Amino acid sequence: MQCLNMAGHQFAVQSCALIILYMSLLELHATVADTQLVDSICKQAESYEFCSSTLNGDLRSERADLHGLAIISIAETIAQIRVVFDERIPEIIRHQVSISNPIDKQRIKDCQSDYNGALHNFLGAYRSSSGRSYWEVIDWVRDGANEAIHCEDIYRWHDPLTVCPISAENHNVIKLAEIVLIVVQSLLTIV
Q1: If one looks up domain 37-190 in CATH, what number appears?
Q2: So what's the pLDDT on residue 94?
Q3: Which keywords are on file for this protein (predicted)?
């Protein structure tokens, strides 16, 4: 009887080991497949490195399909916009107290308004993507990216011409919008 119990125990251990091995192989296969998906998306982006670090920097990307990558890329864009709107622009405004140039003060306030609009648009894109309304996502993302472009451009339209103090952030929002549009375009070709 002891021998039978021992054999049953060995069988159970071997079965568990096989199940764990099988699950590990599935996990590895899914990760490789999803890494290839992110890679195929990022190869279409203007900046492969930016796209890859953005998507691969989010742990959810490992298990995401195209719909998941759409949600993730929109969420990353919203996070970037929130940092600029909630932290970066108010910091610039606080430091501009000593600046007497009314044009610069107005420009950063316009950017603040632009980023408020961008946030509204990307939240709309998130809702539309969650509902799989991908054509709406395109409209929301286009309008949201245009807000960042406007913020960038107002520093170049009139004298004194200068560089926007949040130029890097504007370009990041534009690159993030590009990622969203690449993912959504891929979704529309399979729908």
Answers
A1: 1.20.140.40
A2: 87
A3: Disulfide bond, Signal
Which candidate, 60, 64, 191, 99, places its Cα nearest to that of 137? 191
Q: List the domain boundaries for the chain.
A: 37-190
- Give the predicted TM-score (pTM) of the model: 0.80
pLDDT in tens, 106-164: 999 999 999 999 999 999 999 999 999 999 999 999 999 999 999 999 999 988 899 99
Q: Which residue has the tokens 């599935």?
A: 26
